[in-house]
Amino acid sequence: MKRILAASILxxxxxxxxxxxxxxxxxxxxxxxxxxxxxxFSDGKIVFDPRVRVHTPDSAENxxxxxxxxxxxxLWGVREILVVADLNxxxxxxxxxxxxxxxxxxxxxxxxxxxxxxxxxxxxxxxxYMGGKVIDAAGGxxxxxxxxxxxxxxxxxxxxxxxxxxxxxxxxxxxxxRMKHPMDTGLADGIPVFHMNRIGVESGGDSVARIAxxxxxxxxxxxxxxxxxxKQASVLDFSASDTEGNTYSYHLPxxxxxxx
Amino acid sequence: xxxxxxxxRRDFFGIAASGCACVACGGANAQTLRYxxxxxxxxxxxxxxxxxxxxxxxxxxxxxxxxxxxxxxxGVVVVDTGPSRRYGEAFQELIAATLPGRDVVRVFNTHxxxxxxxxxQVFDRGLIAAPQTVIDNIxxxxxAFADNLYRLVGDWMRGTEPVAPGLxxxxxxxxxxxxxxxxxxxxxxxxxxxxxxxxxxxxxxxGDLAFLDRAPTTPHADxxxxxxxxxxxxATDRDVLLPGHGPADPKNDAILQTLDYLDWLDGSLxxxxxxxxxMTEAMAVPIPDRFAALGxxxxxxxxxxxxxxxxxxxxxxESVPVAD
Lengths: 260, 324
Description:
The structure holds two protein chains of two kinds.
Chain A: H1 2-15, H2 33-40, E1 46-48, E2 53-55, E3 66-71, E4 78-85, E5 92-97, E6 101-109, E7 115-123, E8 128-135, E9 161-169, E10 172-179, E11 196-203, E12 206-213, E13 222-227, E14 235-242, E15 247-253
Chain B: H1 9-19, E1 40-43, E2 46-49, E3 67-72, E4 75-79, H2 85-98, E5 104-108, H3 114-117, E6 128-130, H4 132-153, E7 167-168, E8 173-176, E9 179-186, E10 193-198, E11 203-211, H5 223-234, E12 240-245, H6 253-274, H7 279-283, H8 297-316, E13 318-320
Helix pairs in contact in B: 5-6, 6-8
């Protein structure tokens, strides 16, 4: 009996390590902050820090296409960047590991309503540095069908990719990839969940960047990153997959000289 | 965009507004919301009704648009009807006070953007005319536009419903109420933009193909087609042009300024895409001094990035061979 009691106390304390008031006050004043903190950021110290720069418009012109740029280049030793939209029905947007890249990522997401877009940047010591912005929006970005479903034979374009690789300086590239995919959330009537869930980038067998994508990422995911890749490298190897096990791989030539 | 929703945002606002003091209205109520419309004569018996050079807000009630009306031998012709039913009612009163005792014989909608046709409700649908594609666009987007305008301007919109024109314009000239009108069925600002010229006065009612001293908007724009339409307008005989937003123009200023802005928009978006900028980086590029005086230019440019950026990405980025 004593043993059972002890076990249940242990399990309670494991399941709820964070109590109300344990997290720092949310500058974005979101009602979901403590829930988000506990679900996504409770495995480390949490500090709100202006060096986590999150750029997005004040208001969503199109709730299916909200552009975001996260720039944490002011922080040292970044291991992971995790993005959530507090009031989306499925809040987790993406997780980015810049293994051999600047802590910088551009992407687009769907929002269901006005929400805080919240970014946690985890550094090598395990601390979560937090930033974000509140965006105003009309309703319905996550529950509307992807535009591709209004076309015939949309499967034919699945995974089709366009890309740009530019060299910024001797050891930094700017890379944008844009891949055709409906990114179905499963919340639109009659359309099951079907989204790209992983992009991996390697150079010479070493990981440059890993990105886990979730339902809120916009249709035709378009991602901008800044790999730290020396001039000797001639190619970046991309591999991506979706929730139905389709895989997509491609190789992007790397220019040796900076673009003018 | 309305998939699966039984109650629209508009229904919600209607319910909320009918039963309470309406928090969003900041103390205003149905009795005090009133558009202050003025008729400005731009040619004999031809009047512009100017809206604010702004974006939709509760303060302006959505009155950011130019509408117009002119006397013809057998009555009055109306060009565009404003952002709401309430605007339509005020507009009708203004027409009756300015040209008393004369019936409206025709109403035109230049295109399907919500600030231009939501006053249609107060006119006889059988008198409202537009090209078929404008009518189709109203059918497709009208309800979503109404929802969004309720969100942006609130109770000003009470009772407003989209009404599509009942007459199709499929000709290039017509006698309307004893007056010869020339029609230009163009596109580019949207997929269907209608402009007309009153041949007697030489006034060209250009709709939103032309803006003056206000940044052009692009939610349904095709920049190449739009610029071709502007060159058509430039070659069209006229004494004065009334843009959809901004003052009446006896010269070529509205057309040339709109062309210049669209050229710059096209070039700067291409440049941003070719540099691999993110959309928010593109939104921050410098805007040339010559456009600094245009109303709401930074916010319209940011909106244009959202509207157009992916089209340029699809056009300018190389296709990559993908293996399974």
